[in-house]
């Protein structure tokens, strides 16, 4: 979210109570610790120390180093944010410097946090279990990586939620009607368009999760096992939540607090943009053997556009005047 003041520290009147501060700092430290195993593995792999790797012959050494370096830097950014969130008063930087990488991290981690437990349940019922290992990585690697991601995601999102509540409580606790009054018409239109795009892509992903094959290549159909269907269903659910949240915010007729639809729009749009718009399109570009169809590219592109529209609309909305009738930040309650 964009900062509303020129200050680089907490705004005047922010609620950084002792209880909130202690919880935020503990969650931040938990996220820092949870990042370490993944960062350690990635650093070893960048140095071509293939701990836990069975066979990486499908990738050249240059591609292997590049992929692991990029993912190392992505999680290192989350590590920095987690550390910032442990500092007294929260990150002493402009909010957008924290919000942009947190938006991306929210999208990447939320899908993992939801999909992996369901994949494990499906595996217990007899279907393919991704944590059982394959010809590429040893089984323990999946447990270390995805277990760390789940803990990291829960701790990081929890710490950031407290930070947002303490610093921008007057925004997130305002009624939707009051919040929408501050949103320029262009931003409301962008949110409505993004909601439509995400609803459409959610339908496509729900169909794929249920076994539909339209728009998929033969290679993607053969790869669509139970674990992949769980991923599609998870992404569809997150996109649907984002579409619903954006629709509520764009209409502006609800008296409920803005925090729930805003959180749904935040996490869902970030997940769609990160996993579909970013990783999906890049995977199509570099994965010549498993390149997607034009329809899949259209789905990924729609998710990317929706995410960018949400970012733009959110920036415009939060740069507007504070909603009238909202409680001052230091009197906000969480009820």
TrEMBL record:
Entry annotated with the keyword Transmembrane: yes
Lineage: Bacteria, Bacillati, Actinomycetota, Actinomycetes, Kitasatosporales
Domain of life (superkingdom): Bacteria
Protein's name according to its UniProt entry: Uncharacterized protein
UniProt key word Membrane: yes
Chain ranges passing through the membrane: 27-45, 65-85, 97-120, 140-164, 185-208, 228-250, 262-283, 295-314
Key words, A-Z: Membrane, Transmembrane, Transmembrane helix
């Amino acid at each position: 979210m964009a900062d509303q003041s020129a200050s680089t520290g907490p705004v005047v009147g922010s609620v950084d109570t002792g209880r909130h501060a202690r919880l935020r700092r503990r969650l931040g430290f938990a996220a820092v610790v949870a990042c370490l195993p993944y960062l350690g593995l990635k650093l070893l792999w960048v140095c071509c120390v293939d701990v836990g790797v069975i066979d990486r012959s499908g990738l050249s050494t240059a591609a292997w180093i590049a992929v692991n370096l990029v993912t190392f830097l992505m999680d290192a950014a989350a590590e920095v944010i987690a550390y910032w969130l442990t500092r007294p008063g929260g990150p002493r930087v402009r909010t957008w410097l924290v919000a942009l990488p947190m938006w991306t991290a929210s999208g990447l981690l939320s899908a993992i946090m939801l999909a992996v437990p369901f994949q494990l349940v499906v595996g217990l019922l007899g279907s393919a279990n991704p944590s059982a290992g394959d010809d590429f990585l040893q089984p323990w690697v999946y447990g270390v990586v995805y277990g760390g991601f789940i803990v990291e995601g829960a701790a990081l999102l929890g710490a950031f939620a407290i930070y947002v509540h303490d610093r921008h409580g007057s925004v997130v606790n305002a009624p939707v009607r009051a919040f929408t009054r501050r949103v320029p018409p262009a931003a409301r239109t962008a949110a409505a368009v993004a909601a439509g795009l995400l609803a459409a892509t959610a339908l496509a992903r729900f169909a794929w999760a249920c076994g539909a094959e339209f728009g998929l290549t033969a290679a993607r159909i053969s790869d669509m096992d139970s674990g992949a269907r769980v991923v599609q269903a998870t992404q569809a659910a997150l996109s649907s939540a984002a579409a619903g949240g954006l629709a509520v915010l764009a209409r502006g007729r609800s008296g409920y607090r803005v925090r729930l639809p805003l959180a749904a729009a935040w996490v869902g749009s970030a997940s769609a943009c990160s996993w579909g718009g970013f990783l999906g399109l890049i995977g199509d570009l570099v994965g010549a053997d498993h390149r997607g169809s034009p329809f899949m590219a259209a789905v990924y592109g729609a998710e990317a556009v929706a995410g960018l529209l949400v970012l733009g609309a959110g920036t415009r909305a939060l740069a507007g005047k504070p909603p009238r009738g909202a409680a001052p930040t230091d009197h906000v309650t969480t009820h």
